[in-house]
């Protein structure tokens, strides 16, 4: 048996939030993490005075004041506003889709002209008035065929490795469509990046005498023993792997990050540039110093290319693919989870949901409320 009340598997935002809240309530917590560092996919590391987002650009955004107040306990945030730019075969367009994008594409200068252009394209595409059945129909019904062709189709199909007609509509509804000259990628009330990076947030959450953390430890190397020894387990890895894929594999999308140091002060003039054509093998190029307004060395910058990749067992599962088939299979795994009453499944992988950071914190705090009510 063990002296701990909880075993938490994974040091991402879900596991760390749960650990912090449990320790606050006097519980003894053991945390294991299979990577050689804490913080999951929000991990950032300083290089040349620049906070490098090791697993892709992370911008915190929420409209929930409680979540915003909660995260600020662990870091001070800057005023960063995400305004990625799309590069389609050398043509640059502002994102999300807004009056700047429409003006560059069609020369229109008023919202009425932009609406008329989009409506005419929708009509010509003949997609009908029914609820969009897939991402392609959803995109065309929101912003017409030109933007779909230049800024969405190529990016989406390489990002997900599937045809846009086979992908769920909700993915594209994440992006705002605006008839104003506003390049803010998010509609949320609060937005920013922690000054000094994200890792400090998880460090502070786990900094408690009641919490012991071990990195480089994989739950599956000792699963049966952990289940026997610990009265309660919070598991934030893949739910299908937990059950040895016995009902079949859920699908995930993986990524490969290629990071390099470039000997210039300013490489691309923006933190995020999306490459929206089908041929460029990467989706985004991130220049990390712009997340902190150019802070860092003057003649050096750090750039990461993000390549989408097929997922197979053993690869990092960055995105759940929430189409109907996978969601149905996940429902079956949820039923199976009832046979493991001592285990709580949480986070992007444990709950198989395309969650952003604020949603993960919300899910963790909801789980905490239920746990300690
Ligand atoms: P994770 O961070 O994945 O943590 C799970 C942890 O569990 C990992 O550290 C993993 O190594 C560990 N683990 C798994 N299995 C085991 C095991 N068997 N044994 C031990 N440890 C295990 N969100 C935003 O809000 N804004 C953004 O701009 C944004 N950008 C993103 C960009 C990319 C490329 C990606 C992939 C995600 C982005 N997100 C963003 C989402 C954000 O990363 C997640 O919402 C959040 O990190 C999920 O936290 P988590 O704890 O659920 O999972
Ligand atoms: N998307 C696109 N073109 C872009 C940016 C996004 O078509 O330039 C689509 C794509 O399908 C993507 C989805 O919108 O998967 C959501 O984009 P977001 O930037 O929210 O993706 P994430 O940061 O989660 O990878």
Automatic annotation (TrEMBL):
GO cellular component: cytosol
PANTHER family cross-referenced by the UniProt entry: UDP-GALACTOPYRANOSE MUTASE
Family designation: Belongs to the UDP-galactopyranose/dTDP-fucopyranose mutase family.
GO terms for MF: flavin adenine dinucleotide binding; UDP-galactopyranose mutase activity
InterPro entries in the cross-refs: UDP-GALP_mutase (IPR004379), UDP-GalPyranose_mutase_C (IPR015899)
Protein name: UDP-galactopyranose mutase
Family matches, as SUPFAM superfamilies: FAD-linked reductases, C-terminal domain, Nucleotide-binding domain
Isomerase listed as a keyword: yes
Cofactor(s) needed by this chain: FAD
Alphabetical keyword list: FAD, Flavoprotein, Isomerase
Domain UDP-galactopyranose mutase C-terminal residue range list: 150-354
Taxonomic source organism: Furfurilactobacillus siliginis
Gene: glf1
